[in-house]
């Protein structure tokens, strides 16, 4: 992986931000609860995704990462319909 300076990306180049928002905390706790039924899990994923996409689009570019990120990509296009989604793959 490379950063915008065309050099190798270091772990220090990436920043994880967890927005301090009570609804985000609530939906994360629903997702972490093993007793959450699958229909409630999907609903919670959608609600959390909408909130995270809203927070992320303030300042950052959205890049879905395979598996969980793909579920959020559909939500992103529902909130931001003019966005384009690209899929990158790497062969081992």
Automatic annotation (TrEMBL):
Organism superkingdom: Eukaryota
Signal peptide: none
Segments forming domain Phosphoribosyltransferase: 18-59
Name of a matching Pfam family: UPRTase
InterPro entries named among the record's database cross-references: PRTase-like, PRTase_dom
Protein's recorded name: Phosphoribosyltransferase domain-containing protein
Highest classification ranks of the organism: Eukaryota, Viridiplantae, Streptophyta, Embryophyta, Tracheophyta
């Amino acid at each position: 992986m490379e950063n915008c300076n065309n050099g190798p990306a270091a772990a220090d180049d990436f920043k994880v931000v967890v927005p301090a928002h009570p609804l985000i905390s609530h939906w994360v706790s629903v997702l972490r609860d093993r007793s959450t039924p699958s229909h409630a899990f999907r609903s919670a994923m959608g609600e959390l995704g909408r909130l995270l996409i809203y927070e992320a689009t303030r300042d950052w570019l959205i890049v879905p990462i395979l598996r969980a990120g793909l579920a959020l990509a559909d939500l992103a296009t529902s909130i931001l319909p003019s966005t384009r989604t690209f899929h990158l793959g790497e062969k081992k």
